């Protein structure tokens, strides 16, 4: 048996020195050292040896295995190093080549304007309140002095899910929710930013979904002059210190008295141009003193407190601020349009 083991060692080493690739090397490893390999086959005959011969033959078998394994490991290491060198050569990168430019994103102009509006009002002591976009009929209409069968509740104007649930048409429901949460406490001084939905056909100035920011102030002795001063301060911080505003009488079910707010046309500084239809003024938002019935729905006594509210469309403010002529640009995802605002 010893002679057979020595012959196997000689044969295996000779074959291993001739091997040319890793696959052939593995085949030889299995052939000589595998569970059904030649070395295992020879050592199975040790059961027929005497007790004195077994240790000797066992040691020879171990030496043969160790010799074969050493050559296999050396060969495998050589193949691994060769494969690594070949891969490095094939994957060589020319670091002198110019890199590919990475297009960096920026804050969307609508988000930029909304953040600027929020910062202005936070600077005036307001806090931000939010509410659900899927709203109940009560909070969206009834609590805002819009009873059943009011024209503003028409199915053609609103997205109804059921008879009592719809997509909110303004952020005013957040005002009612906040008033109820305050349990009659004052002061209330909030702005309510968020998306709203109306059944409008998309065109240059309308969209079925748009962003709105409303404001609400409630407390003792709140007056219309407080509202005008607040909006004048906002307009001057948003558009510049030279801007003026004017309030025109209007009607909203949830405020009384109500007004539309115009701002000096930035294109002509109030002299008159095509943008302002030669009036020198551009409408930007609606406002008014909170209607007594709305105060009652919110849990306040209109004989003890008063308040004012205002609402503006973020898209409208952005159109005027950046002199954009079509609201649809904001939603087209055209990088040629959006990149213009990266450094503004």
UniProtKB/TrEMBL annotation:
Q: An example of a Gene Ontology BP annotation on this entry?
A: phenylalanyl-tRNA aminoacylation
Residues covered by the Aminoacyl-transfer RNA synthetases class-II family profile domain: 111-340
Where does the protein end up? Cytoplasm
**What is the protein name stated in its UniProt record?**
Phenylalanine--tRNA ligase alpha subunit
Cofactors that this protein relies on:
Mg(2+)
Taking every annotated instance into account, which residue ranges of this chain make up the domain GGDEF?
A: 315-344
State which Enzyme Commission number(s) the record gives. Answer: 6.1.1.20
- Any one cellular component term from GO for this entry? cytoplasm
Assign the protein's first listed, main location to one coarse class: cytoplasm
